[in-house]
Request: fold
Amino acid sequence: MRVRILRQQTSLSESYWENFRVDVPKDMTVAGLLDHINFNDDIIDENGNKTTRIGWECSCLQGICGACAMVINDIPALACETFIKDLKKDEITIRPLRKFPVIHDLIVDRSVIHENLKKINLYIGEYHPVKAKNLKKAEKEHRQQYDVAKCLKCGICLEVCPNYVNGNSFFGALFANECYLVSSRNETEKKEILKNYEKHFGNTCSKSFSCMDLCPMKIQTIASVAGLNKNSFHN
Amino acid sequence: MESALVIGSGIAGMSSAVELAGKGVKVQLFSPFPSERSQSVMAAGGINAVLKGHEEGDSIASHIEDTLKGGRYIAGERAVRGLCEGAEDIIDHLEKIGTVFSVNESGRPDRRAFGGQSHKRTCYCGASTGKQIVSALIMEVRRFEAKGIIERKLWRFFHSALIKDGVCYGALLFNEITGKLEAYCADAVIIATGGQNKLFGKTTGSTQCDGYAAARLFMQGAKLKNLEFIQYHPTAMETYQKKMLISEAVRGEGGRLFYCEGENRVYFMEEKYGSGGNLMTRDVISREIDAVKKDVFLDISFLGRKEIERRIPEVKDTCLKYRGIDICNEPIPISPAVHFFMGGLAVHLNHETNIRNLFAIGECASMYHGANRLGGNSLLAAIYGGRVAAGEISGRRVERESINYADILEHENERLDMLRQSKSSFPVNYIRDMVADTMNRDLGIVRNREALERGISDIDYYLSVADRISYDSSVLMYANYSLKGILTLAKATLISAEFRKESRGSHFRSDYPKESKDYEASSIISYNDGKFDVCLDKESVYES
Ligand SMILES: Cc1cc2nc3c(=O)[nH]c(=O)nc-3n(C[C@H](O)[C@H](O)[C@H](O)COP(=O)(O)OP(=O)(O)OC[C@H]3O[C@@H](n4cnc5c(N)ncnc54)[C@H](O)[C@@H]3O)c2cc1C
Reply:
């Protein structure tokens, strides 16, 4: 099998494609594949030339930390849960997420995610939940809050979003979800949050919700948006 | 005190940072990657606390006794008492900052039963307790970041502490973006860098936890404690990339362990221990599996698809996703895997190490778990330790001494430059893999003198070439410079295991299979210019 990887030695250098020939079981993940290439003492490309180890980030290796987000056959995904058998083509192309600055090979700097949340100063601080009308609604809200708090901040929702560019003004789905989480668990924060939500998400989101199709945690951003809109009507 | 460095931003590091900031102490919080990537997010099961409205018969005294007993009576009673008494307040605080707990009818955190505990007292957040707590803590840290009291610094790896005459004044951190060492001074330093997984290669935990910080501090004079106590989780499923934890909940729901003899299934745990055999403690089951010397499986298929989907959906999904196994129809192949480190930096009750103003918390510190940890106690200990250290630091007077670090920085930079130029025939990654092989082979579930000595001599060989590795510019600089520390820690762990000539908790010696009164104390190991010294803390120096 042929693996094409977009490489870049440092944040300042040019990127280039490098190809590898590998023979690995189909039930391996892309994370396993990268490990496999890196395992040998000498790393050899498809032309038999010695090359350097491929830089990539990982931590949990089971889809709950978001470290290994990258673009695999044009689709942003976590390498540790993308299986070779599920990739349609016989050739695999791997590149770093495109909307973040590259640091080394597949490692990108996603600090803009955190910086934007910091700018808006989103935090629960004191638990004062919005009172749900009945038990069923309360359970639904709780479920959504639980799901939203599982957000990995991996950046995949930003990578696929047609509206997200570089985080200067539009902050993307993960921001909308965080707004929902905070406002639903602390009613007193709601007003201020809604203002920022409109400014950095609501007014710009074209509602394609491609973010939901690819979210590794399957977070239903649409439900967060509905929750926030409902809140804004009440105000 | 007015300022602190917190190194590591998992649950322990963030807890201490928030607590310090709340008391007005300025914090710089360092980690290479954001908190979402820390091992803390992997904790699934829960966090222990005896809350108001507890199960009948439960009490803080019972939590203390379970913890001491689980640790085979070598954890300090005073420390454990503080931990268990502080638990309710910790849960209240986590609730207050918005952690999404699973709740009961009255809206308070629900509780579940967990191994080794006499009562149902494990609070949980669905199947992602650690992640939910991390998410809440990140917001709290952010609140103080916005106020300018906490400053988060990413892409920094710990290099070494700035120590003079037994006092710590700050730390050197390596910045992987600029490729430079940076010096930071503060009134106190807290180490919160997690466990030592990388010593063993593939474990159930995060690849980011390698024990280097504890190792380097050990080489700088800090003492380490109870390194020989390493918890194996009996049921991990091997994948190409890691050993994936299969939750205890499967056995809690009736899961049965077996191996095959011809056509027949041998339910070895039930045969030996009766109907409750599959629910024995982690160390007993791990040893029994190890003794079987055959492929072992865990079967829950008899529960039926509907119940499996209702009660353990995550386990079903994980097995299907990573191994294509439908647990409703077939058993799960399992084997024990390294899961938790009871040992680490030796700390006093206030979480200070033997080096003044240097503190350690969370899994990198050794305090509450003795010879074995109860599930659900480590998240509690990570948060509690963070609070204790923060309380101590904020209440202490600033010492106006300082250190002239310019020379140290220059010297360490020169050493890194030398490393960059080294070109011998020993690739750094190769040695790291060999260390893991040695540790898995010689410091497994069952140990003996011969294997431990062989392990020590292997590590000695790697140490002898550690200064002559071939520098690999395509991996992190950190991976290169941390090697010697990691080898030193590996050796210290093997020596501690050889020293303890008994079996206790997670430490089992086939040549000394009985627990011995003579060893009813923590082991303390120190390092001096290549020399390792181990002793027992019989005077309970680290209990004060
Ligand atoms: C699969 C699994 C399930 C678990 N389930 C439970 C459970 O249900 N209940 C329970 O109580 N416990 C559980 N545990 C244990 C628990 O998760 C850990 O003990 C706890 O999270 C440790 O927290 P910590 O903050 O000490 O370390 P970590 O969360 O590991 O954080 C360490 C931090 O230090 C940073 N770091 C590491 N090295 C360096 C360095 N050299 N320089 C700078 N920074 C560094 C890391 O990037 C990270 O930010 C589980 C563990 C695993 C693996």
